[in-house]
């Protein structure tokens, strides 16, 4: 390996490490279990693979998933860490985190998609989401993928206010959300993933290594 290649790989490792460090900061800002952002990134990457995306596209959406919640750092801990339901004013403040995240990431010119995932992962397919009430294919595909991965992880994770939900319950909720909360094509891909997960590997009680092995992610 010559000096140029060595420098390239060193910078790539540094970028990966920084992104994972930022993802951990975001996960500390709320009722998320450890490694929420990493799981969302892995689920998003697997959805992208099953949709026939290239390896480069899969990795890009993985990076977008890692930093989708970075805007949580701009919301008070008293709100992101609240165990009970949020009051209306608190919820309005929580709903600012996609815009905060997009603003943080918008000037990263080498990875412009990062801001896309941060801003639009709470949009809904029926147009009832936030912050911009986009609908259908007006929502960038990457954000539609991250949105369903995020919702799946929320249901399959231990939170201050809820336990890990049963796999069949989670599957039913994803099915119910097809065409309303979720892109129906992407929802069908996630349903296929759930049906292939006979041991319920995809949940917050499973180590990231086991999840990566389940998806056959070796590098």
Describe this structure as you would to a colleague.
The chain has a single domain (15-214), classed as Hypothetical protein af1432 (Orthogonal Bundle), CATH 1.10.3210. The protein is mainly alpha-helical. It contains eleven helices and no strands. The radius of gyration is 17 Å and the shape is globular. The protein starts with a helix and ends in a 5-residue tail after the last helix. Helices cover 58% and strands 0% of the residues.
The major beta sheet can be summarized as: none
Helix content: 55-70%
Q: What is the top-level CATH class?
A: Mainly Alpha
| Separate helix tally | 11
**Domain unit count:** 1
Evaluate the radius of gyration. 17 Å
Shape: globular
User: Could you name the CATH homologous superfamily?
Assistant: Hypothetical protein af1432
Features:
219 residues, Hypothetical protein af1432, 58% helix, mainly alpha
Please sum up the structure shown.
By secondary structure, the protein is mostly helical.
Helix and strand arrangement:
Elements: H1 3-28, H2 36-50, H3 55-66, H4 77-80, H5 88-94, H6 97-105, H7 113-120, H8 141-155, H9 167-177, H10 184-196, H11 208-214
Helix pairs in contact: 2-3, 2-8, 3-7, 6-7, 7-8, 9-10
